[in-house]
Amino acid sequence: MKTIAEMANHCIAIMNAKKKWLTIFLFAAAAIILTTTLFHGGVGSLNPTKLFFFTGLIILFFALLNTRGYRSWRYYTLLLAVLVILTFLPFFLPEKWDLVQIQARNQIPGHWAEDMAWSFGFILFTGYLAGIIGLIIAIRRRK
């Protein structure tokens, strides 16, 4: 007959295994969604493709923060802190790192600087969404 401690350890191992499968599922779902949007014209095409792309990015952020098999409010707070730093980092960089100047210096045709700025901005936006949603979920589960 098993002791209570052995049964508790067995239950914890089963729960951790299920959470690891959740992480693997989240990674797979994010990869499928992101590659599907790339084959359908990327972010610059139809509105549903944009929605799927940002949904895939949010799921990818959740999967990256869920790699250890459990969710903690500390991970999401750290994500939000890093995103705030990355948001304000361009204001403190020297002018030679400005995207418009890089485009002019390297004679890159088109709207490369604008495309890069929009891409970084949307990735930061999805990171903020994932951080806020994850923080709310983690705090609600904690209570």
Give an overview in words.
There is one protein chain. This protein has helices spanning 4-39, 47-65, 73-88, 99-106, 112-142. It is mainly α and 143 residues long. It has 2 domains: 1-70; 72-143. Helix 2 crosses helix 5. The longest helix is centred in the N-terminal third of the chain and has 36 residues, at 4-39. The chain is globular and about 70 Å long. The mean pLDDT is 75.
Major sheet, described briefly?
A: none
| Distance, first to last CA | 34 Å
- Number of beta strands: 0
Q: How would you sum up the global shape?
A: globular
What sequence of helices (H) and strands (E) makes up the elements? Answer: HHHHH
By secondary-structure content and strand pairing, the structural class works out as: mainly alpha
Query: What is the radius of gyration?
Result: 20 Å
Provide the number of structural domains: 2
Q: Helicity, in percent?
A: over 70%
Low-pLDDT segments, ≥5 res: none
Mean pLDDT across every amino acid position: 75
What fraction of residues sit in β-strands?
Answer: under 5%
Can you count the helices? 5
